[in-house]
Amino acid sequence: MTRQMKLIGFLQAQNCSNYPASWRHPDSKPNWFSRDYYQEIGRTLEHGKFHLAFFDDRLAIPDRFGDDFRETIRHGVRAAKLDPVSVALTMGLATERLGIGVTYSTTYYEPFHVARVFATMDLLLNGRAAWNVVTSLNDSEAANFGASQHLSHDLRYDRADEFMEVVLGHWNSWEDGAVSFDRESGLFADPAKVHRLDHHGQFFRSRGPFTVPRSPQGHPVIIQAGQSGRGKTFAARWGELIFVIYPNLDIAKKQYADLKGTLAKTGWDISIAPAVYPIVAETQAEAEDKFAAINRLAKPIDALTLLSEVLNYDFAAKPMDEPFTSDELASISGLQAIRDRVMNLSGKPNPTPRDFVQFSGRGTLAELPTFVGSPKAVADQMERWFCEGGCDGFVVAATHVPGTYQDFVRLVVPELQRRGLFQRDYQGDTLRENLGLPRPQAVHASADEEARVSTG
């Protein structure tokens, strides 16, 4: 089959999309707390044959700026957050083929709990679940879980590596075919095909046996977004779909090639998908007018609040034009990829807070590449990124909901399909089948079972 794009919907279980000003858009629906809101999005994405919808998440509202939550609440800067697993299940149960992914932290949960939550979701969705693995970001999240401060960057990843070992160990402890449900013989499941994990590590102890059998796709797909040095190592070890942010095509080509080289060591063809904002209308002029109107919705407080959140640094504590010292830059314990992006794009080893606002684009449309235009123009831009070595697909971010997804599915998807760049229908029933990923083998499977799984 000719190489085709992967398309992923980038969602939030909160009062706005990842564009914090989206709730101010006149066409944004206000019922973000309702079942109907998310089910409508899910049905739209499935109609457009999207591979996956995944929910980003944070475990605290953005309150690092000035150590105060009131401006966040007043301006609705990602101020209200629902539990994403509950929301994702609501969407998943209203769809049949769309993959459903959820962000969950390895820093503030226990591996057995996470393993059971996602294995259960995977069974309920007949093999369509994915887990976006994150290590969390800041001290506000730590405070919500009774800790005085967030773990250091590399220590978070060390802990996350062992976390993944435990989760995957539990997921693989039930062999395929373990459950017989044979009333006549009285055999529910073969105890020889269920195994204890008995993990004893630096961070975790977990005995087992696990409580959830394997799903039709084996276990949930692992999404990862690490772009720092340590993050890339983690992504290469565990990721099966990589979510990235590339500011432009030139940088995308370089970083895509570098990350693909790292991922090649796994022996898998792992897809890399950057986030983008598509703003599409029937004509170029209409799309440009839409862009201008959406761009005006952003406020300075959005950027400062979200930079403080994501970098775990209070931007209210430093004058806007005073350069960060090297020690201050080194102390940033949040998302280091944003710090590195600002230093790279500004050309300054010691950027100022104003440089962070400008070059991160945080809280504005400038944070992500923005494809603006007619259906043909947007498809042209996507095709260029895809065919010139910038990505394997796209994470489609919304400037307002549900309009962004409705416009994209109605106008851009048919153009991509016409060009042979995107699927006209799903390839299978499970998310792994639709992403072209192998079905993982249970570690304890017999030689006969391994041969059956690998060939079937």
TrEMBL record:
Keywords: Flavoprotein, FMN, Monooxygenase, Oxidoreductase
Comp. bias intervals (Basic and acidic residues): 446-456
EC numbers: 1.14.-.-
GO molecular-function terms, A-Z: monooxygenase activity; oxidoreductase activity, acting on paired donors, with incorporation or reduction of molecular oxygen
Domain Luciferase-like stretches: 36-386
Chain intervals for the UniProt region annotation (Disordered): 433-456
Amino-acid positions noted as binding FMN in the UniProt annotation, renumbered to this chain: 57, 103, 153, 157, 228
Domain of life: Bacteria
EC class (word): oxidoreductase
Family stated for the protein in its record: Belongs to the NtaA/SnaA/DszA monooxygenase family.
Protein name, UniProt field: NtaA/DmoA family FMN-dependent monooxygenase
Phylogenetic lineage: Bacteria, Pseudomonadati, Pseudomonadota, Alphaproteobacteria, Hyphomicrobiales
